[in-house]
Amino acid sequence: MAWISLLFAGLLEIVWAFFMKQSDGFTKIGPSLITGVAMLGSIVLLGYAMRGLPLGTAYTVWTGIGAVGAFAAGVIFLGESTSPLRLAAAGLIVAGLVLMKISSTE
């Protein structure tokens, strides 16, 4: 259950990062509210996941999901640029997440 909570915490991190960008510096109320709710949900789920996972594993996976997911959302929905180096960097983060999961005893 900890890994499922961690996955959803990471997905909510993508949501809040995306809507923070859409909030235009918190000047738009709708995206700002979504940002706040998603942040709270993400932190609560991360805390729950940490009950069963080591700190380093949980935090690394949470930030990795958020980083790669926010990068992908920016490219897909906001038309942000890609380059071979940016794609390689995202791939290395994903590789690190896979290694972290494989090395975890939980």
From TrEMBL:
Keyword check for Cell membrane: yes
UniProt topology in membrane: Multi-pass membrane protein
Transmembrane segment boundaries: 33-50, 57-79, 85-102
Pfam families (alphabetical): Multi_Drug_Res (PF00893)
Places the protein is found: Cell membrane
Source species: Gimibacter soli
Keyword annotations of the record: Cell membrane, Membrane, Transmembrane, Transmembrane helix, Transport
Record-given protein name: Guanidinium exporter
Lineage, uppermost ranks: Bacteria, Pseudomonadati, Pseudomonadota, Alphaproteobacteria, Kordiimonadales
The UniProt record lists the keyword Acyltransferase: no
SUPFAM superfamilies: Multidrug resistance efflux transporter EmrE
Family classification: Belongs to the drug/metabolite transporter (DMT) superfamily. Small multidrug resistance (SMR) (TC 2.A.7.1) family. Gdx/SugE subfamily.
UniProt xrefs under Gene3D superfamilies: 1.10.3730.20
Main location (coarse class): membrane
GO molecular function: transmembrane transporter activity
